Amino acid sequence: MADENAQASLAAAASEAPRRPYEGVPANVVRSVPDPASARLSWTDGERTIDYVSTASHLDVRDDSGRLEGKMFSLSYVQVDEEGQPDAARPVTFAYNGGPGSSSVPINFGGIGPRRVQTDGTNHLAASAQVADNPHTLLKDSDLVFLDALGTGWSVVADDCDPATVFSVDGDADAFARAIMDWLEKNHRWSSPIYLFGESYGTFRNAVLMRLLGERSVKLTGVVMLSAIWDWVQTLPGEDLYYLGMMPTYAAAAQFFGRAGEGVDPDEWFDRAMDFADDTLAPALLRGDRLGEQREREVAEQLSQFVGLPAEFLVRHHLRVELTEFRRELLHDEGRVCGRLDMRFCSDEPSPMQSSLDWLGGEDAADDAVEANWTNAFRAFCADELGYKGPAVYLGQNWERVGHKWIWQHEVPGTGEKVGAPNVTGDVALALRRNPTMKLAIIGGRYDAATTFWNVVHDLSCQFLSPALKERVTWMRYGCGHMAYVDEPTLAAMDRDLHEFYERA
Asked: What count of Cα atoms within 13 Å lies in the side-chain half-sphere of residue 62?
């Protein structure tokens, strides 16, 4: 229930002028944003109750000279006591999605926030889908701050700021570092254990951010990587790492739809596919046309048993199957196309005139099934419960202005070269070596064809971490897709595992 006095005092505190304003810096370089809004609310799972204050507000992103680059929208949930006071010793987790070009609504109202849209297995949700207290919210273990990247959601870039400054690997991480420090300063939480929780490109951001924050004397307690992608090379056309990463995920999808792996435990089947990718498919792909027709046929027949496609098809493609082709071919006899973010979701195949593979690559039943429901729930919460007067347009996805114009150049420290398809696993390893007390959780799903599990396992193994650092890394793999929280059994398991992760010293 809302507490009007608490709401008024918190809104006033959030909007007060900085104690040390930047002199000589223009105050009107960014278009106006709504005033902050707060409410005191309660969460319960029927056994436990948490009182918390939720605040919608913007955080300043300023460069070292004090010049405003933008204002980052945040939606926070902070546990409070009977007097309405937070606990400064409690962990605080900064969470976000990826894209690049995505807001933080999915991981909030779809996953770990205190309110969640109730899902229905792999079925598309109706407009009437219910929103309820989330029994598996991370609020039980940590205060939560959900951040929208600049240019997404309700976050805005300053009018006189070159978008290339923030729409890039390094600029984006820098903006998040500055917004996080602004929140810690305004909320007097520098003594709190600090965690990062990123999903998808949010894990790419995490890799750079966990190093960058350390360099700015912000010591992290832990980092959560959900549906991780660290090496951008694996996304490029023709790269063997792409086909190797896809193969176990194809096998998982084929088993789910009854095209392979009959009678085998799904985790065991996935492990077998991971081993096949390492031991058989990788050497075959590396040899190219030196493999020979006979050996190519032998590998194709074995691969066919895993992925459910005919050996002849695999031979014609020289063992290399693009995701869009697999999605279209696996259930072609049923007139259906399976998803990308979560291959278990399906839709009717497009009409014959819609033959563009690029277009089909962007069509995803897993996204269509839930995305709009999450945004509607978020809008209703902000307007009805917080009284936040947000603009009519909320940019849940901003591919045109952000994602498609992203600047990928990044220099992994110690390499001496800035490249356009960086592998930020080096940033992760460097951050762990510099801060060996930090914990790292890596979460993945068998049915995620957007950020495949094989690749992140491969990437970290190539960093040759010491046994002591490897003990700081927790691996969590579930029977889910990219947005693990869509799957309620996975969300319950992830709740238990993350609780142990946060409790671990």
From this structure: 18
